[in-house]
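Task: complex structure prediction.
Instruction: return structure tokens for all chains below.
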Amino acid sequence: MTYTAPVKDIAFLLRHVIGLSDIAELDGFEEATPDLVDAVLEESARFTGDVLAPLNRIGDLQGSQWKEGEVSTPDGWKEAYAQFVENGWGSLAFPTRFGGQGLPMTVAAAVQEMWHSANMSFGLCPLLTQGAVDAIEHHASDELQQRFLPKMVEGTWSGTMNLTEPQAGSDLAAVRSTAVPEGDHYLISGQKIYITYGEHDLTENIIHLVLARLPDAPPGVKGISLFIVPKFLVNDDGSLGERNDVQCVSLEHKLGIHASPTCVMSYGDNGGARGYLVGKEHHGLVYMFTMMNQARHAVGVEGYGIAERAYQQALSYARDRKQGKTLLGKGEEDQAIINHPDVRRILMTMKSNIAAMRGLGLECASAFDRARRHADKDVSERMQRRGELLTPLVKGWSTEVGVELCSLGMQVHGGMGYIEETGAAQHFRDSRIAPIYEGTTAIQANDLIGRKTARDGGQGMGELISDMRATLSGLAEHDQADMQAIAGRFEAAISAAETANEWLLAQSDASLAAATSVEFLMMHGYLAGGWMLIRTAEAALVQSQSPDADTAWLESQITLARYYAERMLPLVESASTIITGSAATTVSLSPDLL
Amino acid sequence: MKIIVGVKRVLDYNVKARVKADKSGIELANVKMSMNPFDEIAVEEALRIKEAGHAEEVIAVSIGPTQSQETIRTALAMGADRGILIECDETLQPLAIAKLFKYIAEKEEPGLIVLGKQAIDDDANQTGQMLSALTGMSQATFASKVEFEGDHLKVTREIDAGLESIQVSLPSIITADLRLNEPRYAKLPNIMKAKKKPLEVIPVADTGVDVSSGLSVVEVNEPPKREAGIIVNSVAELVEKLRNEAKVI
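Output:
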């Protein structure tokens, strides 16, 4: 099963909804003009479709293999990764002073969707490198940046995130790994688990970012420091030196993403791995969050990326497979299952939700671009709040919906979907990790209700709702039946969300807020995704007035938005009812009786 | 030495061609267009020749509407040094295209012109040969291998009977066949640099070349739909059907 990147959808969204030309006017993003971005998207589509997508199945079947501390990736992966590096894809959004191309995060997110659709296990390697580069770039000394970043930006060295230990998963306060100062460096010891691409044969060196405690560290999260621990030490002239005291002791056996090596890492078995402190002592967790916010957004992109792949596969099967007399087929020749109304429902659900998630993923990325580069401080701060508010939605909502859509993709295949050879099952298995890693959905929901909503008294949330209301009033100007139908549903959904927001902000009992926090997250995801689709529909309506418009395609965008408004936006209303009416019952039963 | 390479903007090879309702041609509005695949091979070969040190400059030339600039940018992103567009909104016949390439050749004096053997839209397979006749440059068509031997080229050609090796003197025209090479992917930094490379636009009227054609398209039709096959029971029945139904024997 092949993959063809939806370049037209992405390019339209960037140009007419996200406002790519405004981003290209920000300081430092002058290169990112719409015509350049079109060329980048086209070439990325070619590369991901021709090179990465065909390796997806091989990756699933062979998996990465561990042998005496060494990990080998599946056949063809090394060559593909070398090509990926040679073509410069890893360096897209990195700063030019370290050899990157300095393009906006918005463009990077658009390109990264293609990596994950084509081959999610492959995409994880550069995803982790990106997080590590961000953390080093923002927090490490100039000397460490010079030593590590150029090769990481290039992609010849990869990066990892070492947070989790057996007793310290979602709760990092329990981290036990230690760091003992020795001269200009530290000696790191301890065990880390779930380390994605902790060991592999794709790059010359692997740069681990490791959380550990100094001997005099205060307990809890305030005593965690962040260290750079390279697999091979790096000499002063930049060449590789001796092997550091870090080993991959085993690989986990997982439900999906078989080709992505999930490593158990052991530091300091022979006296201590040499590590370099990033920033200040005891500030590690703050620094790690730089990396995590980036990575959380990227995992959200993964959520809809993998759903897009599942959609393409389901669509192609639905067009080919004939079964039963269809209610929508027009004649003998037109009896593929795509003409069963319920198959249409599934495909419409997949297509509209993917478009909504993509819209939100790119909107969030563009908020961060504006936050970083906008000259007006008020706009910049507002956009920072927006990006931070949307991040848990992109991560939590897109990955949960991503799993549902991959499951629906399987459903289109009937029994064949459950058979591995078809390939639909792989997408479902692969997608299932996304709501778990980089902070489970519950962690995202906590972040949303606590740090992102309650802490600022609902300011960021209020701004978002008010932008949605502005879009809603704009809809009244279009004397068009679809837009009017959409407006009615949108108004009801916004009002329902406002009720839930008020309930949350008035909640003094944290356990009640937490009991329905995931509904709260999903509700805002569906609403914000709907907002993006409605803006897309509006842009399509405007564009359809131009002389050589592709009317059929533009009208399809309006129909998709209407479908979503009619079938998904009511979920916002039901979620609001659940949030405000079920919290007490959820936590009322004694654990003994569960 | 300069190399000129021709790049044509055509309906993307993945898109199913549809005839316009008035049968005047193929529907090209709002469909994906890209570089003719044989031209991609031609660009790749020109770049390899330059990278091997046999040439200093690769110039990508297209003849067509304004949007053909995108096709030239694609060639520039692959590594060509500069581009020339002869802007022309009408569809030109191969003879006119060959004359315009001759105009460019007189201006640029290339040592080599590399073209695709044909374009996948009209499949004419004439421009290279006509250009050779017009300019007097040697021609090596359907090339699957190009080697430099002193000031000559040894070119392996794909012909019906197999492979033919010929020697041509420079300046020469090569037309690229499918197996000549595998075109590279454009590198991200080169895509970004391509924007800044020079691209000269010459209106066709300014060339003074007569591009009128004696041909006009009467009508374009879909190929007849294929009927489902049948299994015959005997050779006699087959012969009978070939004679009376298909009327081919």
